[in-house]
Design goal:
Blueprint: E1 4-8, H1 12-23, E2 27-31, H2 39-43, E3 52-53, H3 66-75, H4 78-87, E4 92-95, E5 98-101, H5 106-119, E6 123-125, E7 130-137, E8 143-149, E9 153-156, E10 158-161, H6 176-183, E11 188-194, E12 198-200, H7 205-208, E13 212-221, E14 224-235, E15 239-241, H8 243-257, E16 262-267, H9 274-287, H10 293-297, H11 305-314, H12 327-342, E17 344-351, E18 359-364, E19 381-383, H13 397-418
Parallel strand pairs: 1-2, 1-10, 2-6, 10-19
Antiparallel strand pairs: 3-5, 4-5, 7-8, 8-9, 11-18, 12-15, 12-17, 13-14, 13-16, 14-15, 16-17
This protein binds flavin-adenine dinucleotide.
Length: 419
């Protein structure tokens, strides 16, 4: 069993670790709980797989030790990832830095990884959920890992734990890394949902459900602006979703956990200044003075939002015509409306379920790991991917972490198995 590397989990980080280890000559086995590897990979980027980002600013990553994350990303950066995928046959397309397969099918990425694994004679055992990992001495007096599933027991020189996080409802998503870490007394940060929709306080959310609109979202914690993003905002029955919400959600979830006052300011007209928006409203009133206040907003705001704004600005008097307002009242209304349409403040009460999260923050603490992704306390035990305390925003950054950390763990596990 010399040079044997066992990888727990056949997701992107596990497959990358396996391929890298096998390329330098290790005998590699991957144990995957599902009936097929890479289920979550198939769900990425709405099935299109945003596999990395050419605008790689490693400071976008979050975790308890961001310097550690940056070093690991540098071991195998986006250029190396692109070269790897090109070499195994993937044509890619660059959308403002976000890289996708040219086919826009995540299955192309998985198929090519699996073909490469087959060429390298990597054994992929599916429906093999790892239940226990421990170390023992072999009859030859060598220290080896014993990896137990429900039906079998595997022996390996080194083990790479790549079993992801409990985020998403994709089958196989698990927090099994927690039990493995606890057994070896390796410290970890609690998994919390990140890149997740947020819940909002208020009875109006049921009325706005289904709207998708261009907006910016600013996260405000205890009165301080923390993060901001702009894009397609989705309004849901319980709150807010969409990429701009995902991008700020990690910070909102952590702030809610600390019982801070967490608010989001929705700007429904980020492309206009407040003055420009007020001018637009004033022109509308001037052109059609007989329209009611709510009619005046038709064509400017998504329909379901109009009664919500009117209720806030005019005490619900949607039928009130602008002719009925004095010049002073109208001017005041226009100013308040322009402000409110750009500063719609909502209270965030928490995150949607873990099943609705794309990733988790938390996992094995960087301080427990060497830069090779090996545990500092358990020789020969490696971790990679989402099981480790590193998370990035939308844009291909989480898969880049899976490739970089998987590569690092794979090559280090292979060489460790040899000494
Ligand atoms: C809907 C969705 C869209 C996403 N889109 C993107 C995107 O476009 N770009 C991007 O960068 N990121 C995206 N992500 C995040 C990305 O998918 C993850 O960061 C990535 O899959 C993590 O890879 P991993 O190998 O660490 O874990 P996983 O992909 O979760 O793989 C872990 C594997 O381990 C297996 N496993 C778990 N426990 C055990 C066990 N005990 N024994 C054996 N096997 C086990 C699981 O079945 C799974 O196959 C998205 C996530 C979701 C849910």
């Amino acid at each position: 069993m010399a040079d044997s590397v066992l990888v727990v989990g056949g997701g992107p980080s596990g497959l990358m670790a396996a391929i890298t280890a096998a390329r330098v000559g290790a005998k590699v086995t991957v144990l995957e709980a599902n009936e097929k590897p890479g289920r979550k990979l198939l769900a990425t980027g709405n099935g299109k797989c945003n596999l990395t980002n050419m605008r790689m600013d490693p400071s976008v990553y979050r975790g308890n030790d961001t310097k550690f994350i940056q070093k690991v990303i540098a071991h195998y950066d986006q250029e190396q990832v692109l070269a790897f995928f090109s070499e195994i046959g993937l044509a890619t397309i660059n959308k403002a830095g976000w890289i996708y397969p040219r086919t826009e099918q995540a299955s192309s990425v998985l198929d090519l990884l699996l073909m490469e694994a087959t060429d390298l004679k990597i054994k992929i055992k599916t429906k093999e959920k790892v239940e226990k990992i421990y170390k023992e001495l072999t009859p030859e007096g060598k220290s080896a890992f014993v990896v137990k599933t429900g039906t079998w027991q595997y022996i390996a020189d080194t083990v790479v734990i790549a079993c992801g996080s409990p985020a998403s409802s994709v089958r196989g998503a698990s927090d099994d890394v927690n039990a493995f870490a606890d057994f070896f007394q390796i410290r970890r940060e609690e998994f919390l949902p990140a890149l997740v929709p947020l819940k909002v306080k208020g009875d109006f959310t049921g009325k706005w459900a289904g709207i998708r609109t261009h907006a910016s979202v600013t996260l405000v914690v205890n009165g301080k602006k923390i993060a901001k993003d702009t894009g397609e905002l989705q309004l849901t029955e319980y709150g807010i979703s969409g990429i701009p919400v995902f991008q700020i959600s990690r910070f909102a979830v952590h702030a809610c956990r600390e019982k801070s006052l967490v608010e989001a300011v929705l700007n429904f007209f980020p492309e206009w200044t407040e003055e420009e928006l007020r001018d637009e409203l004033a022109t509308r009133v001037e052109n059609r003075p007989d329209k009611s206040l709510s009619q005046m907003l038709v064509g400017l705001l998504p329909d379901k939002l109009i009664p919500i704004f009117i209720a806030q600005l005019s005490g619900g008097q949607s039928g009130a015509g602008t002719r009925n307002l004095s010049a002073g009242q109208l001017s005041d209304w226009l100013t308040r409306a322009a402000y409110r349409l750009r500063h719609f403040k909502v209270k965030i009460t928490g995150a949607a379920s873990l099943g609705q999260a794309q990733i988790c923050s938390g996992g094995i603490l960087a301080e427990e790991l060497k830069e090779s992704m090996e545990s500092k306390s358990i020789s020969g035990l490696f971790f990679c991917g989402e099981s480790v305390d590193a998370d990035g925003p939308c844009g291909g950054y989480n898969l880049q972490w899976a490739w970089s950390s998987g590569y690092t763990a794979g090559i280090s596990a292979a060489y460790k198995g040899r000494c």
